[in-house]
Amino acid sequence: TQLLEQSPQFLSIQEGENLTVYCNSSSVFSSLQWYRQEPGEGPVLLVTVVTGGEVKKLKRLTFQFGDARKDSSLHITAAQPGDTGLYLCAGTHNAGGTSYGKLTFGQGTILTVHP
Amino acid sequence: NAGVTQTPKFQVLKTGQSMTLQCAQDMNHNSMYWYRQDPGMGLRLIYYSASEGTTDKGEVPNGYNVSRLNKREFSLRLESAAPSQTSVYFCASSEFATGGPDTQYFGPGTRLTVL
After folding, report:
1. E strands of A1-115, at which residues?
2. Diameter of chain B measured on Cα atoms
3. How far apart are CA A21 and CA B8, in angstroms?
4. What is the pLDDT of residue B85?
5. Phi-psi region of B2 (alpha: psi -120 to 50; beta: other; left: phi over 0)
6. Which chain B residues are within 8 Å of A100, Cβ to Cβ?
7. How far is the first Cα of chain A from the last one, in angstroms, to the nearest whole number?
8. Residue B94 is nearest to which of A43, A101, A105, comparing CB atoms?
9. Which residue in chain B has the smallest CA separation from A86?
10. How far is CA B96 from CA A94, A103, B47, in A?
11. What pLDDT band is residue B23 in, cutting at 50, 70 and 90?
């Protein structure tokens, strides 16, 4: 099993602060995704990164895929209470083009942004 | 479109009882998945169905069985429930594009407690 380690597990900050969540593995991933999950709901995809060194921005969220495709980070600028939720990274391995569907999830980071 | 629907939303079982969790998607997706989510452990894949007529084990299949009834429906059965199966269960579906990473769409989850 290829593991994804997320850190920190919990993050409690004030509105307006910046934060970074990390996702690390000893394995190379074909692609890395970030999901956000709110209480009582299923995860929702935020972004997919596929190229080593790739950086994607989604409003105040910046996602980066490591050069070696073993790690990723999510940076939130000027966090807002609406950003509160569980953030999950998930990776896929492409074994000859047949494994794109299977995701390996990290443990998740619970983010709380206080007004 | 309803997306991915799951029934029931909540269930309490006694040890040894059996039950079936139902999942349906209306997006004409080829692939469907069952995950369980436990605190501090992210989502772990139980079983998946890459296409209609096929099913395969995921990371934690013991104690579960699945049926891909048709392209829309994928059910998860607990034959003899155990307290260790207390968890939140998520069904997901995806197009499963072999040429690139997939987006998985998740249902709202079933909260199962086994006493």
Report:
1. 5-7, 10-14, 19-24, 31-37, 44-49, 55-58, 61-65, 71-76, 85-92, 104-105, 109-114
2. 45
3. 33
4. 97
5. alpha
6. 96-98, 100-102
7. 40
8. A101
9. B42
10. 12, 12, 15
11. very high
Shortest CA distance from A10: residue in chain B: B40
Q: Which residues lie across from B114 on neighbouring strands? A: B13
Average pLDDT over chain A, rounded to whole? 90
* Pick from A49, A95, A87, A39: nearest CA to A71: A49
Return the residue in A54, A100, A110 with the most chain B beta carbons within 10 A, the one to mutate for interface testing: A100
Q: Which of B41, B89, B104, B110 to mutate to test the interface with A (most CBs of A within 10 A)?
A: B104
Q: Which is higher by pLDDT, A49 or B101?
A: A49
CB contact under 8 A, B92 and A40: no
Question: Nearest 10 degrees: CA dihedral of B48, B53, B54, B58?
Answer: 20
pLDDT at residue A57 in the model? 96
Identify the bridge partners of residue A76 per DSSP, sorted by sequence position: A19, A61
Short-list A61, A57, A62, A66, CA closest to A25: A66
Q: State the average pLDDT over residues B11-19.
A: 97
User: Can you tell me the distance from the alpha carbon of B97 to that of A41, in angstroms, rounded to the nearest whole number?
Assistant: 25
Say if residue B100's pLDDT is above 80.
no
